[in-house]
Write a structure and sequence with these properties.
- The protein is 34% helix and 13% strand.
- It is built from 9 helices and 11 strands.
- It has 323 residues and is of the alpha+beta class.
- The two termini are 27 Å apart.
- The strands form 3 sheets. The chain has a 7-stranded mixed sheet.
């Protein structure tokens, strides 16, 4: 029987990473002050479907986009020091490479201008999901894995990220794979994921779900869990958002480009999950709309277009449980 370790501890982000999207008085090349933002309650109540400001304007010939383009042109001509100075004035994060800083500042002013022009009073984060489950399996491997090599999962860490408070919670379970899967399902159901709270799975690449979990379910002779058939591949999201090649989307590279350092022991599933969650938090703060971009269909990896409607992962049930 395959042993699956799911060691974990509770964790909170440092203060500058726990805040919702920052707000600040007017300063610099952008328009007037941003609308104040309040955090959503997580009290078990259903949330209405939210729309970001950009969903309200479909006609890109609208004059607001010309104003945004002028602001973007000004930002493109700024040096890294000028970008950092402006971000500091706006009380935004100042760490990261120049491209990251530029993207952060552009998104701040874009969101500010669209919100003001449309006079949208947002009471919640623009993020569609209430929670994101970060999963990063550790599996058996050989020095030179043959194509037919069957990877068995040996660590099943899962970090639950609250998209409102930007806090991270961890689960601590161990045992055989079916046993751990059942306990993870129970843990997720206790938090009402898929029923009263919208959520999505997030992974560092495609292999965790399309390869490791798929193979392990075959080895354990259980059906692939329905709640894990769609996920957010953060490497793909990161590359598309910051406009960097796929070769610069490994975990270490993403952290470095964001001005962050790895916390913990590399290749420890628990620590990897926590660091992936830190990257996701920074992307949310920079204005990225994390959304499902991959799925497993008939056992094969399939890309999900960004035009697909947003939807929560289904309530987690065990593969052998009747619903």
């Amino acid at each position: 029987m395959t042993n699956v370790v799911c060691a974990a501890v509770g964790a909170k982000m440092e203060e500058d990473q726990k805040e919702n999207f920052p707000r600040a008085p007017d300063s610099g090349p952008g328009p007037g002050p941003a609308q104040p933002k309040q955090r959503c309650r997580l009290d078990g109540q259903e949330y209405p479907i939210k729309a970001t400001p950009t969903t309200y304007i479909k006609d890109f010939s609208d004059p607001v986009y010309k104003e945004i383009a002028v602001t973007n042109g000004h930002i493109n001509r700024m040096t890294r020091d000028e970008l950092r100075t402006k971000l500091a004035e706006l009380h935004l994060e100042t760490r990261g490479v120049k491209d990251v800083l530029r993207k952060r500042l552009k998104n701040f002013y874009k969101k500010q201008k669209l919100t003001q022009t449309l006079q949208i009073k947002s009471e919640c984060s623009d993020m569609y999901y209430d929670y994101i489950c970060v999963i990063d399996f550790e599996a058996t491997c050989e020095e030179n894995n043959p194509p037919e090599y069957l990877h068995e999962i040996i660590e099943f860490p899962i970090a639950l990220m609250n998209t409102r408070t930007l806090e991270i919670d961890m689960v601590d379970k161990a045992g055989s794979f079916p046993d751990v899967l059942q306990r993870v399902v129970d843990w997720m159901r206790e938090r009402e994921l898929g029923t009263k709270c919208r959520y999505a799975i997030l992974t560092d690449g495609s292999w965790d779900m399309s390869k490791f979990l798929n193979v392990q379910c075959h080895l354990s002779r259980i059906e692939y869990p329905r709640f894990a058939k769609k996920w957010i591949n953060i490497r793909k999201s990161y590359g598309n958002f910051y406009k960097v090649p796929r070769t610069r989307t490994k975990l270490a590279s993403m952290l470095e480009n964001l001005g962050m350092v790895y916390e913990g022991r590399p290749h420890c599933g628990l620590d990897d999950s926590r660091n992936i969650a830190r990257i996701a938090i920074r992307m949310l703060q920079d204005g990225c709309e994390l959304r499902v971009n991959e799925c497993l269909h008939a056992g094969q990896l399939v890309n999900v277009p960004n035009t697909s409607p947003l939807e929560s992962a289904p309530p987690p049930y065990s593969p052998w449980q009747k619903v």
